[in-house]
Specification:
The protein is α+β, with helices and mostly antiparallel strands. The protein has 15 helices and 20 strands. The strands form 4 sheets. Strands 9, 12, 13, 14, 15, 16, 17, 18, 19 and 20 form a 10-stranded mixed beta sheet that branches. A 4-stranded mixed beta sheet has the order 2-1-6-5, with no helix packed on it. It has a 4-stranded antiparallel beta sheet with strand order 3-4-7-8. A hairpin with a 2-residue loop joins strand 16 and strand 17. The chain is globular. The N and C termini lie far apart (51 Å).
Length: 493
């Protein structure tokens, strides 16, 4: 794997152009950078990147016009009898891959279904779903831009292993900054206490330089970084927050960020995970999503006299998010592990509500975003096991439903809650209502509440059916496996 020094980051791995409008531009830059391989990255239904590569000499006009054929049935989408698909690269996305030893230019793009007389966009492909959601918003005349800003939380460990054999089940992670390592031979005594990692400094913050390398690589790829820091989890929880941008572009950037984070950790001899709850009783990792709407370059979420300086349109958008919160979870929190994070006591939202500067609410309005162009709110329950294209599109569709139907969150009893929702008595929490407690509950909600997603043909019904079926199989697989805690609780009965 290619190694990189700090000094070389901003020159060797910089995105080599921002608007490559022609194939000739790309080929010229390939010659300039001595590119040998051109790599194409596609997104599967779960939100993982897959890729295929060609020698640079094979990159020609046919590649751009007709694309590269592949079998989509292995990506989780189409049935085998209709699985021939075509990947068409987006020239504007071209960049040098910083993790390949052979000089490699990489591109993302769109997936088409083979048809006559012309190929057509594959309606289940994540990037196409996000684009259709944006186009639907424009057709309604509500806004022309959905701006989002995700926060990436993740853990970095020195090592991680797991076993899922019939006769043996378990996992092990370790990092020498964790409090459990204080008695290990060769340690230095600079451990981070349990749930005490927020903004911890050197020498305890052993991943500082790794985060800086990650952020420089993200910048070079075109992902603008706001800041990075150590998060609450004492055993290696980190955060990188990026500047807000157009919705589909930010879904692209989320794929880039996860790729850079995981590969940079590997290069450093460590391992990164976006599991929402990798460690019991430690802080979980979410992916809070900040959002704004603009029309003709003007923000439509701002009203100087509104609650939290939010307009009626913004509050209706929040109303849509809260109305559909349960079904949204099936897309924004799509793993069984997601619901081990969404529990009380760990700064994760569990009750459905909104508030100003209140991190215990599902929807939070940051107090520091005061200027009209910055006025926004964040949805705090999503995590990075989601497919970002589906997640951002679903969030937009829920908000649009709120605007179309003028869903008032206050009138529906969802706040504003200007107090800590974690401290409410249980009977009061029950009156408010909460997020699903399991993936199964979220899927039940999605089956009952999904019409808002299918409007305008944004989410095909076939995609939702495949999604629910796939996720229920994951739940069944998990439920059939004995858990180590069951041995501790019941072995001697």
């Amino acid at each position: 794997m290619a190694m990189c020094t700090k000094d070389s980051l901003t020159t060797t791995f910089r995105r080599i152009f921002t608007m490559a409008r022609t194939l000739q531009d790309v080929l010229a830059l390939c010659r300039e950078k001595d590119v040998k391989i051109v790599d194409f990255k596609m997104t599967d239904i779960d939100g993982r990147w897959r890729h295929l590569s060609i020698p640079v000499d094979r990159l020609n006009e046919d590649t751009i016009v007709y694309g590269i054929g592949f079998d989509g049935s292995n990506y989780g989408y189409a049935p085998v009898e209709n699985s021939d698909m075509v990947f068409v690269p987006d020239l504007d996305s071209a960049t040098m891959d910083p993790f390949t030893e052979i000089p490699t230019l990489t591109m993302i793009g769109d997936v088409m279904v083979i048809d006559r007389p012309n190929n057509r966009p594959f309606d289940q492909y994540p990037r196409n779903v996000a684009k259709r959601a944006t186009e639907y918003m424009r057709q309604l005349g509500i806004a022309d831009q959905m701006i989002v800003g995700p926060e990436y939380e993740f853990y970095v460990f020195d090592r991680a292993s797991y076993v899922t054999k019939p006769q043996e089940m378990g996992f092990a992670v370790d990092t020498h900054q964790a409090e459990w390592a204080s008695g290990e031979e060769g340690n230095n005594g600079y451990q981070v206490a349990h749930k005490a990692g927020y903004h911890t400094s050197l020498p305890m913050d052993i991943t500082n330089d790794l985060r800086s390398r990650i952020c420089l690589r993200m910048e070079d790829w075109g992902v603008k970084v706001k800041y990075h820091h150590h998060e609450v989890g004492g055993c290696g929880q980190l955060e990188v927050e990026v500047e807000l941008g157009e919705m589909t572009q930010m879904a692209d950037n989320t794929m880039v960020a996860k790729y850079i984070i995981k590969n940079s950790a590997m290069e450093a001899g460590r391992t990164a995970t976006f599991l929402p709850k990798p460690i019991a009783d430690e802080a979980g990792s979410g992916m809070h999503v900040h959002m704004q709407l603009f029309r003709d370059g003007q923000p439509i979420f701002y009203d100087e006299n509104g609650y939290g300086q939010l307009s009626d349109t913004a509050l209706w958008f929040i109303g849509g998010l809260l109305k559909h919160a349960a079904s949204l979870c099936a897309i924004t929190n799509p793993s069984t592990n997601s619901y081990k994070r969404l529990v009380p006591g760990f700064e994760a939202p569990v009750t459905v509500g909104y508030a100003m500067a209140n991190r215990s609410a599902v929807v939070r309005i940051p107090a520091y975003a005061k200027a009209p162009k910055n006025k926004r709110f964040e949805l705090r329950n999503p995590d990075a096991t989601c497919n970002p294209y589906y997640a951002f599109a679903a969030i937009l569709m829920a908000g649009l439903d709120g605007i179309q139907n003028k869903i008032d969150p206050k009138a529906n009893g969802w706040g504003p809650y200007d107090f800590n929702l974690f401290d409410l008595p249980e009977e009061e929490k029950a009156k408010i209502g909460g997020l699903p407690k399991s993936l199964e509950e979220a899927l039940d909600a999605l089956e009952q509440d999904h019409e808002y997603l299918t409007r305008g043909g944004v989410f095909p019904q076939r995609l939702l059916d495949i999604w629910v079926e796939k996720k229920r199989k994951e739940i069944s697989k998990m439920n059939r496996v004995p858990h180590p805690m069951e041995y501790a609780m019941y072995y001697d009965l």
